[in-house]
Amino acid sequence: MTTELRELYQQVILDHNKKPRNFHVLEGTNRTAEGYNPLCGDQITLYLRLEDGVVKDAAFQGKGCAISKASASMMTAAVIGKPLDEVESLFQRLHTMLTGETGASGDGLGKLAVFAGVREFPSRVKCATLAWHTLHAALCGAAAPVSTE
Ligand code: ZN
User: What is the Cα 145 distance to its own chain's centre?
Assistant: First the structure.
């Protein structure tokens, strides 16, 4: 990754940290889940409104580092209006980009590709994936809080 690209990615993450999108409690949700990353202390509560297999609305609350907050912010923005199979494939792509053997490819991830740089910092990968694991739990209807440990 070039230095310019890395700096651009950092700016996007910092912007989402400062002004997180969909950062509020959502009324009329039918799925919620909580996630916790004990390594960093990131906490997130995710609210979803599902209708006919489509994420109609999504929002989150929580506290944590810039990466966890930016990731949750961008995740909610990315999944609103998407059918569940597309949400699932985004999650798989992001997960592969961050943890897969073959190296980072942001193909098909759109803006979420900004998290590719996190791959170089294994301790921060969990910050970036916390929101997604929480989303997964919310969609699967898991009752217990999610922990990245
Ligand atoms: Zn974190």
Answer: 16
pTM here is 0.90
Write the CA distances from 94 to 4, 27, 34, integer angstroms: 22, 28, 20
Which residue would you say has higher pLDDT here, 105 or 130?
130
Dihedral pair phi/psi, residue 85, rounded to 5°: -70, -35
Instruction: Please give the distance, rounded to the nearest whole angstrom, from the Cα atom of residue 42 to the centre of ligand 1.
Output: 5
Q: What is the 71 CA–ligand 1 centroid distance (Å)?
A: 10
Q: Which domains does the chain have, with CATH numbers?
A: 3-140 (3.90.1010.10)
Q: Which protein residues have their CB within 5 A of the ion that is ligand 1?
A: 40, 42, 65, 68, 127
User: How many A from CA of 20 to the centre of ligand 1?
Assistant: 15
